[in-house]
Please model this.
Amino acid sequence: MALNKKCPEIREAGEEESGQLRRLFKTLEDCPGFIRVGPAGYLFSVKFEPEIENIYNIEVRPTDTFIVTFPRSGTTWTQEIVWLLLNDLDYAKAASLHIVERFVNIGTSIWGLASRKTQTYKEIEMNKEDRRKFEKVIVPGCELLAAATDPRFIKSHLPLSMLPPNLIETAKVVYVGRDPRDLVVSLYHFSRLISVPLYTGDFKTFWNMYMNDNVVRAPHLSHVKEAWDLRNHPNMLFLFYEELKQDLPGTIKRIAIFFNKTYTGEQISGLCKHVHIDNFRNNDSVNVNFLSKVDGLIPGEEPFIRKGKVGGWRDYFDEEMTKECERWMAKKVEETGIQFPTYP
Model:
């Protein structure tokens, strides 16, 4: 398909922020640089630049279902819920197809997925199932999407402004936001778990990077605000991670209604049990253990699916960080108008 839509403005990121990333992420020493995209200045590796226009010009179909989040906002959890609701609670099929096979990830190649990995993975001995899953996170999402049959399920960590401009008028979108404090803790652990780019600094440094919009895809709250401003659109279902945690049955019912699906109370209870954190953590079809076959996971770090906890940030923030965070959040909430849920 010919590219005919103007993608968001792209400019080089500052040397100071690029240098900080290279110092603290082990596999970025030789990274050619970073870019800022759009008016909000979303931060990406320069390796992602060739994908931006392709993604912006995707042909969106009315039968498409998009799950859009900033990373570590309950994405995989929401994917499993939505897919099962739209597939008549077919647990057997969900177990037989990994989540990376059920959803096309638009933006997978943001890091270039490390040339050392992409060049050598074909030579690594692995079974057909693991190879099939690994290829789903190596091949650019636009290619996978073009080959996918309807109905297509699509996941993206990109802000709405970097997705096709007709998306919200054409397809259904579920967006999930999360309290910045819990999100940054989860993102910190994920960045230590994944070997590319592999964060090597401490949590306090990571928090400061996040506050200064120097983690990839930041600024987080600009990302959330784009969806928040569209929360009343009939094709947008805006959820908070905290809503899923505090009232999972009620939130699942909201999702079902959004997609014009009807299930009994017993069926909703069964789905709640299926996605309960204790079961979810041990569900091979939603975990990324296959990445360990290519040294993609760092041994000894916390798992891909962690605690699923609300308020866990309190175990990481000292008194000084807590006060700093309160000031920062108050300012951001005033600027964005986002009303994050409160919890004990």
About this structure: Residues 319-336 form the longest helix (18 residues). Residues 252 and 268 are 7 Å apart (CA to CA).
